[in-house]
Amino acid sequence: MNCIAWNARGLGNPRAFRALSNLKKSFNPDILFLSKTKATQLLLELYRVRLGFSGKLVVEKVGKSGGLCLFWSNKVNVNSMSFSRFHIDVGVVSNNTKVWRLTGFYGNPEPDQLHHVWTLLRRLNGLSKLPWLCFGDFNEILSESEKVGDAAHPRILVENFREALDFCELEDMDFVGPCVTWSNKRDEGFIQERLNRGVCDFKWKQLFPSSSVENLDFWYSDHRAILVKVVDEDGLHRNGVWRHKRRFHFEACWADDSECRKLVSDNWGENIRRNMVNVDFRLLQCAMKLAIWNQSNRQALRWDIDNKKKEIYAASKNIKQGSWKEIRRMNVSWISCLKKRNVTGSKGLDKTGLKAGIVTRNSFIGKRRLGKLGMR
Questions:
Q1: Are 218 and 276 part of one and the same domain?
Q2: Signal sequence: where (predicted)?
Q3: pLDDT at residue 119, as a whole number
C-alpha cells in the first residue's frame, strides 16, 4: 500500500486540486495526509468524494492558516487515536491482519515554538505500543547536509529535533529521490532544506522490512510530497492504478475543443442528410466517433503530461539560483495540460464553489431535465 504526506500550502483553488488529483491518480495512495490545507470541513468532504476515498479526519484551519486532513481508502481500516493542530494519530489495520500506528505530523513553522511540538511528539510516544510510522512536514532538518543556501542553521534546533526522535526511538527512513523537500523558490536568498520525511520505530521496521520512502516532485506547493511504500512481508504491494471499463460519457472539457465540435457537427449533419431521424442511432454513432477521437487525443495528451513532468523533475533535481523562473513556467504549462485533460472532474468544482468552500446539490447529481419530472 502507498501512504503520502504533503504540505499542500492551501487547497482552496482549482490549481491546487488539480495537483492533488494528479497525485492521487499517479500513486493511488491508500492513506493521504495533508498539512496546511487552509480549507473548510465542507470543502475537504467534497474533495474526499471527488478523489474516491472512503473516510477522512479533519483538523480545522485556524483563521486563514493551518489545517490538517487524513484521507483513507476502503482497503484499510483506520481508527482515530488523537489529534491536535500539529498531528493526526490513528491506528491502521492493513491486509486484514497487520495492525500498526500512523501519525501525520506538522512541525510549527516558527523556530522558537518548535520545542512545543517536540514535547508533543514525546507525549505521543507513550500513548501506544503499536509499531509506529510517523511522517509529514517536521519543519526542521537533522543535519547541515540537509540544507542548501544562505546562512548556517542554528545547531540547537537540529539537536532538539534529534533528541526528540531518539527519545521516541524513531529512526529516519532511507529515501530515494532528491534530498531537499522544500524550497523558498526565490532567485535571491535561495534556500532548500529537507523538512519532510518519514520516521519509524524498530517494531514497524520489523513488520514491513522492505518498505521505502520516495521524495516526489514539486506538485504545485513549495514542498515535495513524500511517498511511503508500505510493503507487506508477503510482497503484496501494488504500485499502480486500478483500471476498469467505463461507460461512455461526454467530458465537459470537450465542449471547448474545436475538433470535437467539428466531429459532432459532421456526423450529426451526415445523418440528417440521409434522412435518419432515429435520435438514439445518431447519438450512438456520435458516441463511437467521440470515443475513438478521445482515445487518440488522450494518449497524445498523456505523453505530453508525462514529458512535462520529467522536465520538471530533471530541473528540480539541480535547482540553482535564477532557475525558478523557468521551473514556474514549466509548472504553468503542466497545470494547463492537466486542466485540458480534465482530471479534476470539473463538472462539480467551479471556481466560485472552491473559493467559498460551498458544495451545491448539482455538484454531485447534476441538473435533472425538467421534462422528466413532469414540469414545464
A1: no
A2: none
A3: 97
The three cell numbers locating residue 101: 500506528
Cβ pair 81, 91 in contact under 8 A? yes
CA 351 distance to own-chain centroid: 19
Distance (Å, rounded) from C-alpha 369 to C-alpha 43? 27
Question: What is the sign, positive or negative, of the torsion defined by CA atoms of 27, 31, 33, 37?
Answer: positive
Q: What domain range includes position 53?
A: 2-229
Its sign, for the CA torsion 336, 17, 63, 36, is negative
Question: How far, in Å, are 70, 181, 207 from residue 33 at the CA level?
Answer: 4, 16, 21
- Give the residue carrying C-alpha cell 520525511: 197
- Would 347 be classed as within a structural domain? no
| Lateral strand order in the sheet of 171-172 | 76-84, 87-94, 98-106, 132-137, 196-200, 171-172
For residues 359-368, average pLDDT = 38
Looking at the structure, do residues 41 and 111 belong to the same domain, yes or no?
A: yes
Pair (32, 93) in one structural domain: yes
Give the global pTM.
0.66
pLDDT in tens, 330-344: 777 777 777 666 543
Around Cβ 231, how many Cβ atoms within 10 Å? 16
Residue at grid coordinates 523557468: 326
Place 65 in a pLDDT band, splitting at 50, 70 and 90. confident
Amino acid at 168: C
> What DSSP line would sit under 25-44, residue for residue?
HHH--SEEEEES----HHHH
pLDDT in tens, 191-242: 889 999 999 999 999 899 889 999 998 777 889 999 999 987 654 444 433 3
Q: Are strands 171-172 and 196-200 parallel, antiparallel or unpaired?
A: antiparallel
Does residue 137 lie in a domain region? Answer: yes
**Neighbour count for residue 344 (Cβ, 10 Å):** 22
Residues 211 and 260 in one domain: no
